[in-house]
Amino acid sequence: MNSDGLQKGRGAQKNTSNRFLEHVYELRDDFLEFCRLEGETAESDKTQYIPVFPKTIVNKVDSPDVGMMYSMNPYQGCEHGCIYCYARTTHEFWGYSAGLDFERRILVKKTAPELLEDKLKNKRWKAQTIVMSGNTDCYQPAEKKYQITRKCLEIFLKYKHPVGIITKNALILRDLDILKELTSYQLLGVNISITSLSEETRRKLEPRTASIQKRLKTIQILSEHRIPVNAMLAPMIPGINSHELLKLAKTVSYHGAVSFAFTLVRLNGAIGQLFTDWIRKAMPDKAEKVLHLIQECHGGGINDSRFGLRNRGEGHIAKQIHDMAKLAKQKYFRDKQFPELRRDLYRKYRDGQFELF
Questions:
Q1: Is the peptide bond before 235 cis (omega within 30 degrees of 0)?
Q2: Taking Cα atoms as reference points, which of 328, 329, 295, 327 lies closest to residue 314?
Q3: Rounded to an integer, what distance in angstroms lies between the CA atom of residue 35 and that of residue 28?
Q4: What is the pLDDT of residues 249-259, one digit of tens each?
Q5: What is the DSSP secondary structure assignment for residue 173, as one 8-state letter?
Q6: What is the pTM of this model?
């Protein structure tokens, strides 16, 4: 436990019930709390890596306001522990909780590179940018051990296929050699997520992520190698980090980002319960104010499933944030633009030989 009563290194402070399961087990967290009080180590509190074997790895994204057509996720669940993460609810489809299970039960797709190659070899596949980490971070701590993301990038390079990356981990620099080569063919776009310039805020919101300085340095190094970087200033949470938007935009531009994007926080499904529990423990003095501000951006609720509005928000608070973003783009990104990735270099493997299209 931290001095503020938060579980050290974790975002969620509990497991929520899985909406798909009839039976719910409550004893595990009581056992973990007993171990903490007794000064013992609870083995079940350690992160577990669980191999899974999906039939496919490339997913069609049907949501019209996400900004990508296809995504792939080498891992399900994420040890970074970001309390606001929209991907938490997807863990329920695997039989786990969106809470602590999402952070400490990481599903590892070791066959992802082979599945990706099968997809790119398919004669019916037409090249479209595939985004790694459409759901969970492909450079989370598990990647250091399994290197699935690196192997997938090698496949993208082999087939000269466009790829996007979303991450908040400096581990991406390990693969600078492949990233530079992909960029030489204009096949790569990188999105670095940075939510705050305050380390105190970062540690509370995103307990196991790279520090702010490491992320800014990552943007700088990638940019120095002409790798295009879009900064994801997301989510903006009114009362926590929304006041930083202008300064964040200025800082990432200074470090080399060619564009930025943002979303307003939305607490879908079990995330609303987890976030409410977390903020009352992590920021008790401002908890009710923040929850009220979020509600004002989403028609009175903390969740919002309306396409077109769920990520943008509505009302005067949301408008103020959007106005700040417009000003930031005019001041700091006027002469910058994120490049369009090439699809014409994509090669398919047929009859043992590559054909260039």
A1: yes
A2: 295
A3: 11
A4: 999 999 999 99
A5: G
A6: 0.86
Task: For residue 71, give both structure tokens.
Answer: 């995504």
Q: What is the pLDDT of residues 257-303, one digit of tens each?
A: 999 999 999 898 889 999 999 999 999 999 999 999 999 998 888 87
Cis, peptide link before residue 284, omega less than 30° from 0: no
Residue 246, class by beta-carbon neighbours within 10 Å (0-12 exposed, 13-18 middle, 19+ buried)? middle
CA-to-CA distance for 264 and 258, rounded, in angstroms? 21
Q: Whose structure tokens read 């503020």?
A: 4
- Residue with tokens 């007794």, as numbered in its chain: 38
Burial of 186 by CB count in 10 Å (0-12 exposed, 13-18 middle, 19+ buried)? middle
Angle subtended by helix axes 148-158 and 112-121, to nearest 10: 20
Cβ-proximal residues to 247 (8 Å cutoff; 6+ apart), any chain: 197
- How distant, in Å, are the alpha carbons of 68, 74, 102 from that of 59? 10, 12, 20
Per DSSP bridges, beta strands 259-261 and 229-232 are parallel
Element (H, E) at 2: none
Distance CA(325)–CA(317), nearest Å, equals 13
Residues in the chain: 357
Cβ-proximal residues to 170 (8 Å cutoff; 6+ apart), any chain: 210, 214, 215, 217, 218
State how far the alpha carbon of 301 is from the alpha carbons of 298, 304, 305, in Å: 6, 7, 10
CA distance 314 to 282: 27
